């Protein structure tokens, strides 16, 4: 186990809710936590499950000593039926403190109607500004046009903060309605935009997950979340490739980094992009076998983490995407055996190639000591 990462699990029986969380950092420094909330399917209607998760969230914030003083900077709600659940969630969120809130239809695989991931920190160093963008979407045009519009708008927003997409964006998430049909438009729009920004195979791209996901509005084909940091010096951000196991993404026409490492004076963050069962030639490995695809996916992620001087023991959270919900019992058992303590959300979401049955992403945090950079 990592000496720096602490894992906890808390069951709130009267709310029929379980919270898995990771804690990093101690007294005198910035602390971070990732919380995954799971409500029992038997907890009742959607409104009752939403109420249970919200009460559990506030209970954890107020009663868990190691989390007191932290504030949410980003959260994501995973819904089973956004069209019928969006309105009630928005009514609740209007009463909450400011935080970047992502909402996506990716049904939780445990059978519940709603799940929640929350990222919290104590006050970070004033040398850096952390900017989270969540839930961006437009309803005009097809996926290619929507992606172009979203990236252009995001660039303008970054410029207004004194940042640029090429220099300061760390991570993006792109949720695509009907990914088997609309993903090609996303790929084309992003590639053209990146070329205009000077982002090429010989420079760098941005860590990303491009996966099935829906908004409540069926006209919105693309949802966009992103994370950028202002104040990084050249050299603080490096890119992870694991070329012994994975191909450059440009080999099969897409433009994202397999992973990004951000080094601070006291810690290092690793953002691992959506990763599937792929080899160094860009080919799908173990077609039709979800168990073997899971193992190869783990191997690929492990190599990316190793390249960033980390391991699975440093992972703060995972999100696992399955194309076929019937694979969940098998995959859940595999993860429970290898990662019994890591906070994980399992959701239904088709990967960008039909032959990929499973994909995962994760965030890792490693203690660091580098006087060249300011602490987090």
From TrEMBL:
Molecular function, one GO term: deaminase activity
Any Pfam family hit: Ribonuc_L-PSP
Top-rank taxon: Bacteria
Single GO cellular component term: cytosol
PANTHER family xref list: 2-IMINOBUTANOATE/2-IMINOPROPANOATE DEAMINASE RIDA, 2-IMINOBUTANOATE_2-IMINOPROPANOATE DEAMINASE
Identification of the protein by name: Endoribonuclease L-PSP family protein
């Amino acid at each position: 186990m990592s000496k720096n990462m602490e894992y906890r699990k808390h069951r709130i029986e009267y709310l029929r809710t379980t919270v898995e969380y990771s804690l990093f950092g101690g007294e005198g420094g910035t602390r971070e936590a990732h919380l995954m909330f799971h409500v029992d399917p038997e907890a009742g209607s959607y409104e009752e499950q939403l109420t249970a998760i919200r009460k559990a969230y506030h209970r954890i914030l107020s009663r868990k000593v190691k989390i007191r003083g932290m504030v949410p900077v980003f959260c994501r709600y995973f819904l089973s039926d956004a069209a019928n659940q969006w309105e009630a969630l928005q009514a609740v969120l209007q009463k909450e403190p400011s935080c970047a809130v992502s909402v996506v239809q990716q049904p939780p695989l445990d059978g519940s109607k709603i799940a929640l991931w929350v990222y919290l920190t104590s006050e970070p160093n004033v040398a850096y500004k952390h900017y989270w963008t969540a839930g961006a979407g437009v309803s005009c045009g097809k996926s290619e046009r929507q992606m172009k519009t979203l990236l252009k708008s995001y660039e303008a927003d970054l410029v207004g903060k004194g940042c640029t997409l090429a220099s300061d964006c760390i991570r993006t998430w792109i949720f695509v309605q009907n990914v088997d049909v609309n993903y090609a438009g996303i790929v084309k729009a992003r590639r053209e935009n990146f070329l205009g920004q000077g982002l090429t195979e010989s420079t760098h791209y941005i860590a990303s997950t491009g996966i099935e996901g829906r908004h409540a509005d069926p006209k919105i084909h693309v949802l966009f979340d992103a994370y950028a940091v202002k104040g990084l010096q050249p050299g603080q951000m490096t890119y992870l490739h694991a070329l012994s196991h994975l191909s450059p993404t440009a080999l099969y026409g897409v433009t994202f980094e397999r992973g990004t490492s951000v080094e601070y004076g006291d810690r290092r963050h690793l953002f691992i992009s959506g990763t599937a069962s792929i080899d160094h030639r860009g080919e799908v490995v173990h077609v039709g076998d979800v168990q073997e695809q899971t193992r190869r996916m783990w191997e690929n992620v492990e190599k990316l983490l190793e390249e960033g001087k980390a391991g699975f023991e440093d992972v703060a959270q995972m999100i696992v995407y399955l194309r076929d919900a019937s694979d969940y019992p098998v995959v859940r058992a595999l993860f429970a055996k290898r990662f019994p303590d890591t906070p994980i959300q399992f959701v239904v979401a088709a990967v960008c190639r039909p032959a990929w049955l499973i994909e995962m992403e994760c965030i890792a945090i490693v203690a660091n000591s580098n006087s060249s950079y300011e602490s987090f």
